[in-house]
Amino acid sequence: MAPSRGPVPTPRKLHKTLANHKGPVHVARYAKGTAKYVLSGGQDRTVRLWNPELGTEIKSYSAHGYEVLSITVAHDNSRFASSGGDRQVFLWDVMTGQTIRRIPGHMGKIFAVEFNEDATVLASGSYDSTVRLWDLRSQNRQPIQTLEEARDAVQTIHVGRTYIATGSVDGHVRTYDLRMGELRTDFIGHPVTAVVPSQDNQTYLVTTIDAHVRLMDMTTGKMLNDFKGHASSSYRIRACFGHGEATVICGDEDGKVWAWDLVDAAPLQPNPPPKVHERVVTWIEHHPIEAGEVITASADGTVKVWRS
């Protein structure tokens, strides 16, 4: 729970604009731990590595034939995986800029890729309604498991230590307990674009295109809180927790970044927030460790680094 002095303010001072992509940026991810790097992927078929402190591009990764929709970074920052319109997952070496492996198998574009904790397994979720799990230590080209319960496109995946959570356009969040071999399904009722669990895995945030972000109990599937005010009706957007999980932050289709108090779901000032991107904010992510930094990606072609 947040201390009584209230939640840490959302970083709203623009530090740098990362503007080398040609066209919409669909995803921006921080490197793991204290590493000061950001990876972004866009409609221009590239993944770009940035130094957000200086605002400079370090490297560009080109092999995709279609748009890049998802990026996941390995625990040691030596590799990352990306996916999108290609129907295959690309595994990259960060330093050399070369693809280590390309993994075919899906029948449609791949909206989400996510490593497990030690990057030995990769999960991919697709327009073909399946999630496939790949063993990266094996040269076997077949997935070790295919999760086929979704009835529509899978747009988001989170791989926990003992579970995998998926969100689908069919309006369901599905949590696969890997130890027990059990599946729990939460019916949200609207297309799910993002699922972000809390650090203790007791709750998760689910973003849906009915302009709601909901805090759900991971064990019971009960809704604990409902955050609204932002504009969201047609694009994949993502809400996440602010620093210390005392707030919820989410970009919207008007280019605004909203913040709410986790406990009472009240929008934080400024309410309404100012427009900070020219088009929809497609992704928002808080720095994994530091209190005062957030990145946003937008269809306006930029990634912006915000500080307190």
Automatic annotation (TrEMBL):
Signal peptide: none annotated. WD repeats lie at residues 18-60, 61-102, 103-144, 294-308. GO terms for cellular component: catalytic step 2 spliceosome; cytoplasm. SMART domains: WD40. One of its GO terms (biological process) is mRNA splicing, via spliceosome. Coiled coil: none annotated. It is found in: Cytoplasm. InterPro entries: WD40/YVTN_repeat-like_dom_sf, WD40_PAC1, WD40_repeat_CS, WD40_repeat_dom_sf, WD40_rpt, WD_repeat_MORG1. Belongs to the WD repeat MORG1 family. This is Nuclear mRNA splicing protein. It comes from Trametes coccinea (strain BRFM310).
